[in-house]
Amino acid sequence: MNRLVTLLLSLLGAFACGALILALAGYDPLEAYSALLVGAFGSKNAIANTLAKSTPLIFTGLAVAVAFRGGLFNIGAEGQLYMGAMAAALVGVYATGLPGLLQAALALLAAGVVGALWAGIAGYMKVKFRAHEVIVTIMLNYIAISLTNYLVNYPFKAEGSVPRTDAIPAGMQLTKLMPPNQVTTGIFIAILSCIIMYWMFNRTVYGYEIRAIGLNEDAARTGGISIGKRVVLTMFLSGFIAALAGAVEVLGVHKYFVAGFSPGYGYDGIAVAVLAGNHPLGVIISALLFGSLRSGSMNLDRQTDVPTDVVVMIQALVIIFVAIPWVIRKVKLMRKRGDSVGSQS
Amino acid sequence: MIVSLLSSTLRISIPIAFAALGAIFCERSGIVNIGLEGMMLVGAFGGVWGSHLTGSAFLGLLFAMLAGGLFGLIHAVLTIQFKTEHIISGLGINLLALGLTTVLMENIWGNRGRSGLVNGLGTIRIPGLVDIPVIGPIFGNTTILLYLLIVCLIVAWIVLYKTVFGLRIRVIGDNPKVADSLGINVYMMQYIGVILCGMLAGIGGAYLSIGDINMFSRDMVAGRGYIALAALIFGGWNPFGVFGASLLFGFAQALQIRLQVFNIPVQFVEMLPYIVTILVLILYRNRSRGPLAVGKHFRRGEA
Amino acid sequence: MYAVELHGITKRFANTTANDSVTFTVKSGEIHSLLGENGAGKTTLMKILYGMQQPDEGEIRINGVKQKIDNPSVAIRLGIAMVHQHFMLIDSLTVAENVVLGYEKRKGMFFDMAGAVQAVEQLSATYGLKVDPRQKVGDLPVGTKQRVEILKALYRQADILILDEPTAVLTPLEVVDLFRVLRELKQAGKTIIIITHKLNETMDLADRATVLRAGRNIGTVNISETSPARLAEMMVGRKISFDQAPLSAYPNRTKLLEVRGGVLRKHHVPVLNGINLEVHGGEILGLAGVEGNGQTELIEAITGLTPLDEGQVLLAGRDITRQSPSQMIESGIGHIPEDRNKLGLVGDFSIRDNLILGYHHRSSFQRFKLLKINHIKHFADQLRERFMIKSESIDTKVKALSGGNQQKVVIGRVLSQDPVVIIAAQPTRGVDIGAIEYIHQQLIEMRDQGKAILLISAELDEIRKLSDKIAVIYEGRIVAYGSRDAFDEFELGSYMTRGKPIAETGKEANADE
Description:
The complex is a heterotrimer. By secondary structure, chain A is mainly alpha-helical. Chain A has helices at residues 2-24, 29-41, 44-69, 77-94, 100-129, 133-153, 186-203, 205-215, 217-222, 227-254, 265-275, 282-303, 310-323, 327-334.
């Protein structure tokens, strides 16, 4: 209960801060926020939009959260989703002759594997070379974007001037839930992933071990847990899930891989994970919040002259406010009675 | 050709070197700074904004320093005062910088991609020096920030290894409890380290805008802040090592631009600096020994 | 005239009260011993005096004037200096730098190394503390490091010196030297407070002594009017008797654990230097030694965390030298780690989750990698009852428990899995008296069931109370091995600090002069 209250207060703080900055820059915060609200929930189309924008965020948020639970910082969700998207698109274009459902499943699997391996590079580098995964995953992001850019501009380029692949067959495209809006059955896949991860963390040996490593690596090692293997496993899982975000965008929204299709979903995933406290189910709600910000921002653009990057700012403020250990406040009050024996690093 | 390559290498490494230099002071005091990217970005914006407001690029440089320092202060308060996880604070700052600079840019120039042109720092021509073969074109006719960088490097080295302040900062990063027991104010020194870092990173960012293309564009730091971190690790957390590392990355970038002439698809060449960074991390795994207590929160009075 | 007065000092931490309304006074120019067992509150009290901790209640007076000591620099300004038990030195810097750090000799902004060296040489000469100012502290032997710490205090013109367990890491010869220095300092008018639990040294050196027990001041006495027996009684609260556990009556004791010629190098230095060790079933082998002589590495080798570079580890004759940690656990090696918070428990996990750590692969807890939640819950409930772990529920996070209860979780976990060999490292460190007796009881029970127990402890009393056989580890080798009564505490002390029996020490002393 306490945690929820702190969370809500943090959100309030973030929005208040955002309003302050808007006001200082000469905009009307109320106008901006109500435009956001309308854009997110003001009509059936708006809600559909929110759900559509939330779908990739559930995946990337889950990916980042899974890594965080294992004590790892996966900043590479963006690169992983690009790789996954490319893999899915290629399966769609070249693995022809299969029934639609099977082809879709194959595309998702291929995407996941590619994403897992891409993230696995960072995991392996951490274990073998003590390379900090933050830097490695960020570098891999740039490399992935360049690599997929190359692929989509040269060998796999479709006819025409747009840098994209050929379209995937209709049989494997994800069904739209509320046409013509872009929200698809992909959102169910996303939610299912969250449930599976929740179950994995709480019911399996792997989840137990990953959590232990994330909370106290030394004790985990002393308890016989193989740190190296689990770190790589954690990155595999994280990369797999992030890649699904890209695959679902290809299968459901665009129907092909197009350069630059992600407006930063991978990075948004970090905000989603932090707000959700790295809880696999909490990610769903958190993603909806950020998804609503994104869909709201489209309306912001239409109705006001407030720059859409205000949403980026609010995201940053949410990360900052939520990440502050407000427990410290309580501890300061407790100092009257004695120091606390916290376990924070 | 070689001269032009060397010249480019040096110029390209300037922002990275400034940021990495700042990061030395920050990390040596025990605070991890993933937010270099953001501090550079606000520095780049501050430079343009200042130049736009006052017409003087030099005042713009001052703005850049202050902007970077401000974001350094935010990071410092979050990590030192509130004990936020260093890495998350840094990520938050990067995102905040991105959003804030873009919002302000749109506000002022009405364009969501780039700002207008402003007065830049330009280049300085040193007569006499300029005529010396090889060295002349590189050092004799270049941005003032290069000279500033060299001065900063030397000053930083002297401060870090010859002054009392430098001695204390080095101690704090390795063993804050010992420093505390001696009556050194650990918190204050950490604040100074982080804010100094922000200021230097801000100057580095300013090079990208008013030192080079004389305008600001969205997200123009493009990952250099992270490369600066790799330079910090590769350079062994000391000024000249870090400068050398920055030169390496500058070289990779300069080479990449020139390779585009050949028929290699541009994307592969673009990847070069980032691949180099990863290779560096692989090869220099043993150098990943930074200040012993970096990343940990120091709590006065913990039993 | 009183140099130091502490009135009504109370300090509480989350789970315990370290100081309970303590009043403590020290006369100017005296040597005052602050006595007490581990956990009695001595260090906390002195940390409050030095400004490293803040009291919840109480008042401090220095030379009669009320003071608020918010941090060490205030204390230093008041002329108080503390020489810590765990040296506060920077290994990578020189002696001179370490001594002046915080009050550096300067030339403007610049650090005046020459000035620092000179200052150290002067102090060194004045007080007879021989050091080389330009040597790196990391290269110095322990006794010299302590001299550097004392020089630090003198450099800051301290009049009141607090020494925390100063002789814990010194050789007998170094102790003699230290005492000489302290007496000279007293002659020079300094006031000295020594935190210690060593009675003979107190009798030898101090003018007065104050005893703390469980956070309370039990009383202050003049040394001339008291005796070790009386002091011991005050420290422990009962007539002290060497309540040894009955020796093992287990028949047919086979060699269950053996280490042969164990060599382990860290940074090319052999930390284990040809160590040979054997523990039999139905027996407790107590391994005595000053911390840092290879105990940690020995444990790492036996538990698979860092395998030996040379030599073998044998379990009931089977070579297990290269097994992984999880294989070691499966083979029946139970490990009670010396630092339970760092190595033994995941603080944010519940009691339930911690009770299966290391054993979570066992078929009683999982099937096809799925955890058997109900079984685990049942198991945890049982253990909680059996080991009397005091908490609200098994879902309480372990970090909220008291030290004793935390240790019970670790011990319960290991003991319930029917290990063959138990490695108990500092099993009662930071644990309250009641839990200590309980843990000792459990170890004896395990021994009587035929398990081999390797007890590693820095508390000689614990070793002498529980062990059937005693060995001493020194610089990575076993330098003494025999039955419980083969050595008295002074001989053990000599082996622990010199690696040699007492008889040789006398010869050595003459040779050095």
